[in-house]
Write a structure and sequence with these properties.
heterodimer, A: mainly beta, six-stranded mixed β-sheet, four-stranded antiparallel β-sheet, B: 115 residues, mainly beta, 11 strands
Chain lengths: 110, 115
C-alpha cells in the first residue's frame, strides 16, 4: 500500500539552527512527493515538491531531495527563523490521491 | 485572485444529524478534493471530483458523499454524524484531474464539532 512516515515532533529549535525533518514513504508505482506547511488556524500551503527520483525541490530556503533508493524525502533548512514555526506535512501523490504523514510541529524560539 | 474558499468556517452538530460543507475552487480550477484532518493527524483523502464526476474515493463509509456543480464548486455531505466525525474538513482545488505537476491549493477548512 501507500503510506508516509514522518519523524515525530514536536521539534524546538533556536533561531538560525539547522533543521531536518525526516520523511520516508512506501508506494506502488512512481509517486510525486511534497512538503506542505500548516500555520495555526489555516489550511495547508505547498512548500515544495519533486516529481521524480533525484529531483530536488526548494522554496524559501527549504529543500528536499527525492531519494528512491532510500524511499526518503527529508526536509532541510540551513537557518530557521521564528516565522518558520508551523506544522510540516510530508505527502505523496499517486494517481489522483494524496497520502499525508501525521505532521511534525516545529517551534523556533528567538 | 481569491483562493479556495470554504463555508462555514465552524460548525457544531449533534450525533445523528446531517451536515453539508461547501467549497469554491480557485477560478479556472476544475478539480476539487476533500480531506478530513483529525486533530493531531495528517489529512485523509475522502473524494476527488473533476468535471462533475467522481475520480477518486478514500476509505470512508457511505455516510460521506459529495458532488460537484457546473461552476466547479463542491459540497461534502455527511449523514448520521458520529462523534468521530469531529475534524477539520479541508477542500483543495487544482487545474486538472492528475496532480503531479499541478499542486493542490487548500482552503482554510471547516471545523466540525460533534456533541
Amino acid at each position: 500500500g501507500n503510506s508516509v512516515t514522518q519523524m515525530e515532533g514536536p521539534v524546538t529549535l533556536s533561531e538560525e539552527a539547522f533543521l531536518t525533518i525526516n520523511c520516508t514513504y512506501t508506494a506502488t508505482g512512481y509517486p510525486s512527493l511534497f512538503w506542505y506547511v500548516q500555520y495555526p488556524g489555516e489550511g495547508l500551503q505547498l512548500l515544495l515538491k519533486a516529481t521524480k527520483a533525484d529531483d530536488k525541490g526548494s522554496n524559501k530556503g527549504f529543500e528536499a531531495t527525492y531519494r528512491k533508493e532510500t524511499t526518503s524525502f527529508h526536509l532541510e533548512k540551513g537557518s530557521v527563523q521564528v516565522s518558520d514555526s508551523a506544522v510540516y506535512f510530508c505527502a505523496l501523490l499517486t494517481g489522483n490521491q494524496f497520502y499525508f504523514g501525521t505532521g511534525t510541529s516545529l517551534t523556533v524560539i528567538p | 485572485d481569491a483562493g479556495v474558499t470554504q463555508s462555514p468556517t465552524h460548525l457544531i452538530k449533534t450525533r445523528g444529524q446531517h451536515v453539508t460543507l461547501r467549497c469554491s475552487p480557485i477560478s479556472g480550477h476544475k478539480s476539487v478534493s476533500w480531506y478530513q484532518q483529525v486533530l493531531g493527524q495528517g489529512p485523509q483523502f475522502i473524494f476527488q471530483y473533476y468535471e462533475k464526476e467522481e475520480r477518486g474515493r478514500g476509505n470512508f463509509p457511505d455516510r460521506f458523499s459529495a458532488r460537484q456543480f457546473p461552476n466547479y464548486s463542491s459540497e461534502l455531505n455527511v449523514n448520521a454524524l458520529l462523534l468521530g466525525d469531529s475534524a477539520l474538513y479541508l477542500c483543495a482545488s487544482s487545474l486538472g484531474a492528475r496532480g503531479e505537476n499541478q499542486p493542490q491549493h487548500f482552503g482554510d477548512g471547516t471545523r466540525l464539532s460533534i456533541l
